[in-house]
Amino acid sequence: xxxxxxxxxxxxxxxxxxxxxxxxxxxxxxxxxxxxxxxxxxxxxxxxxxxxxxxxxxxxxxxxxxxxxxxxxxxxxxxxxxxxxxxxxxxxxxxxxxxxxxxxxxxxxxxxxxxxxxxxxxxxxxxxxxxxxxxxxxxxxxxxxxxxxxxxxxxxxxxxxxxxxxxxxxxxxxxxxxxxxxxxxxx
Length: 187
Hints:
Distance between the termini: 96 Å
Strand content: 35-45%
Number of domains: 1
Order of helices and strands: HEEEEEEEEEEEEEEEE
């Protein structure tokens, strides 16, 4: 037994009681210098009315298709921006004009402007739904300072444009040039 007690005593001599310690937090930093890029307008929609019958009276035609989308991207500037659109008079190849014709955009889409990335944290720009176009630019899209950062797409449906043609115009193949302009300034 003495040997057992001696072995037991030797075993307990080797154990040293440890006091509980509290860890002191250590801090560090993570840094990132993100250089703002630019704001770009890379594409805009076109509207087609197809072949329609001329009328002896005032006539209103609805677009039959739309091609392209309104693509805008703000690579981190946050300065805000405005996009305007102007329409040239409708003219035929030979130079004949479609007198006093009025082109309008009425965006009826449920979600006409959305971020290209689903996790975009910026407030999206505002798309003006109903516009009458002329040779003077009108605002179609705007973002206040601090919003509209990231890439966005604006869509128009096939029937979102209309063309009012007054009586007395001559039939022909007419076209109008739409000029979409980006201003790097908030509305």
